[in-house]
Amino acid sequence: MFDDLRDLYQEVIFDHNRNPRNFHVMEAADRKVEGFNPLCGDRLTLFLKMDGDKIIDASFQGSGCAISTASVSLMTEIVKGKTEAEAEALFTQFHEMTTGKEEEINLEAIGKLAVLAGVREYPARVKCATLAWHTLDAALKNEQDSISTE
Amino acid sequence: MTDFPVEKIRADFPILQEKIRNKPLVYLDNAASCQKPQQVIDSIVHLYSHEYANVHRGVHTLSVKATDRYEGAREKVQQFINAQSTKEIIFVRGATEAINLIAQTFAKENIKAGDEILITAMEHHSNIVPWQMLCEQTGAVLKVAPINLQGELIYAEFENLLTDKTKLVSVVHMSNALGTVNPVEKIIAAAKAKKIPVLLDGAQAIPHMSVDVQALGCDFYVFSGHKLYAPSGIGVLYGKQALLEAMPPYQGGGDMIRKVTFEETEYNSLPYKFEAGTPNIADVVGLGAAIDYLNTIGMERIAAYEAELLDYATEKAKQIQGLRIIGEAGAKGAILSFVLDKIHPHDIGTMLDSLGIAIRAGHHCAMPVMDFFEVPATARASFAMYNTKEEVDILMAGIADLIEIFG
Ligand SMILES: Cc1ncc(COP(=O)(O)O)c(C=O)c1O
Predict the structure, then answer these.
(1) Does residue B368 sit in helix, strand or coil?
(2) Which of A17, A86, B17, B217 stands the most exposed, by the fewest C-beta atoms within 10 Å?
(3) What's the rounded Cα separation, in Å, for the pair B216 and B302?
(4) In this predicted model, what pLDDT tens digit does every residue of A12-42 receive, in sequence order?
(5) How far is the CA of B158 from the centre of ligand 1 (A)?
(6) Of the residues B124, B364, B369, which should be mutated to test ligand 1's pocket, given the most ligand atoms within 8 Å of the CB?
């Protein structure tokens, strides 16, 4: 049952969906950006605490599918302590992984995020996984306070 | 249920033999678009293979044949919805285009600043946005009659909103997000008493029940072919002849004119006044074939069969812990919208897809309905005449399994 889906819904994803990490409002956030995927109604708010160009804390609020919840939960873990440039580089890697350029992925850098590689087989779900990162990208560029994947 | 020839019907739909992810297809996304019987597919192949040319233009044999097929389909539509005349049947791209046409011709001509257009809270975006655009252009005001937690129109509120300012009522016959069938007879009677024209969005109703526009007494009725076992890209605008006669044309071009000089143009008579340019000839023919097909079964029988199927599915769904049905109107068509505790509809959609089951997960082009029920989206199983109780069982087993996996 659901054997075909094991690549997409790995246990780590269920775990982060059940118990999302860094799932809280950050009162003293330096950056706060909302991400919205109008296609599925996924909505999240990302909070960052910065020290110069370094992300020292990240948290989120919102509701979404298991893929998007796990993706943002994992992201908030991995970007803590990274500089803006390092986070942007991760975003690029993540984007390539989820849109199918697997060979080029630096597995070491991407670490745990590799559990989301399975979405590339599900084009309808890629946006669920990338919403978190587009939101982070907007937060780092300090562009707007709300972004949409459509 | 036993005398409904569902196996025979299924055999006419080649796509139902497809395997999806190595499982037999269970197609339950009929409200988005339904599948086509071989008869419809063949009608198009036959037209292009033997009888195709442009319509209304040539004296040559093929053009006459194609015109006969095209106009023959118009007669089929007229009879199918019991319009008084073929002049009242305008071919358009679909329900969306039909509503936009009415907004930009009839409504634009008759509605001014301060006037009101009345819709309901369960409309598809296609029966919201064209009116918002019109309101922007004219200064008219869009009024929305509320629904209750069962997903039914609160009729008393609707009646209160029906005032001297109301210049048009536009309501969905059957809701795509909830399955609710609106009390359109009552709505039309109340509007008529105040001489307010009524448009019914029949996009969902048309494949599920027999529709008689004269008995209903609505002024406009719109639907799309692709939800009626016919091709996509073709739809119907029915309008009462007197109203259509008085309306300005929608688009200008060939076919919709009688005489053109650079000084002035005389418009063609109905229905051609509203059919500018070369129409979607093949898909009109396909729509005619779909109607022929449905007539061999009968809409009353289809409605009875689907009602049993929905009852069965609803009963099964209610036995699943953590499942909440969205839309429990007393009068309902064969649509089961639901949410599961802590499992997002998109995850439901992907999981069921891996079992070969196609459902819709999303807002169903009815974001205000999602907001009302405070859900970001729902999962929706929508049934057609070719679905079976066995397929309902497969769906329900799939839902039970995925609940277990999500734990
Ligand atoms: C109730 C309702 N109205 C209108 C439409 C629009 O139909 P179409 O997209 O074919 O123009 C739909 C289609 O989803 C619908 O369900």
Answers:
(1) helix
(2) B17
(3) 20
(4) 999 999 999 999 999 999 999 999 887 777 8
(5) 22
(6) B124
Two tokens at B283? 């898909």
Q: In what order do the strands lie in the sheet with B166-172?
A: B89-92, B235-239, B220-224, B198-201, B166-172, B116-120, B141-145
Out of 3.40.50.2300, 3.40.30.10, 3.40.640.10, 3.20.20.70, the CATH code matching B41-296 is: 3.40.640.10
Distance CA B340, CA B351 (A): 13
Distance CA B374, CA B386 (A): 33
Is B96 close to ligand 1, i.e. is its CB under 6 Å away?
yes
CB of B203 closer than 8 Å to CB of B95: yes
Q: Do B346 and A5 touch (CB under 8 A)?
A: no
**Are residues B123 and B172 in contact, defined by beta-carbon separation less than 8 angstroms?**
yes
Q: Tokens for B40, please give them.
A: 């419809």
CA of B251 to the centre of ligand 1 (A): 22
From residue B163, alpha-carbon distances to A21, B158, B159, B192, B313 in Å are 54, 10, 8, 12, 40
Reading chain B (407 residues) residue by residue, the pLDDT tens digits are: 568 999 999 999 999 999 998 999 999 999 999 999 999 999 999 999 999 999 987 789 999 999 999 999 999 999 999 999 999 999 999 999 999 999 999 999 999 999 999 999 999 999 999 999 999 999 999 999 999 999 999 999 999 999 999 999 999 999 999 999 999 999 999 999 999 999 999 999 999 999 999 999 999 999 999 999 999 999 999 999 999 999 999 999 888 888 888 888 888 999 999 999 999 999 999 999 999 999 999 999 999 999 999 999 999 999 999 999 999 999 999 999 999 998 999 999 999 999 999 999 988 888 899 999 999 899 999 999 999 999 999 999 999 999 998 87
Domain B6-30+299-406 sits in CATH at: 3.90.1150.10
CB B379 within 8 A of CB B394: no
- For the record, the structure tokens of B259 come out as 């005489």
Domain ranges, ordered by start, for chain B: 6-30+299-406, 41-296
Q: What is the CA radius of gyration of chain A?
A: 14
Q: How many CB atoms lie within 10 A of CB B294?
A: 21
Q: Is B365 a catalytic residue?
A: yes
| DSSP code, position B364 | T
- CA pair distance A69, A62, nearest whole angstrom: 8
Strand boundaries in A52-88, DSSP class E: 54-63
DSSP string computed for B160-179: HH--TTEEEEEEESB-TTT-
| Mutation target vs B (from A5, A8, A36, A44; most B CBs, 10 A cutoff) | A5
> Structure tokens of B196?
């307010």
Prediction ipTM score: 0.87
Identity of the amino acid at B203: A
* Residue B379, strand partner residues: B338, B361
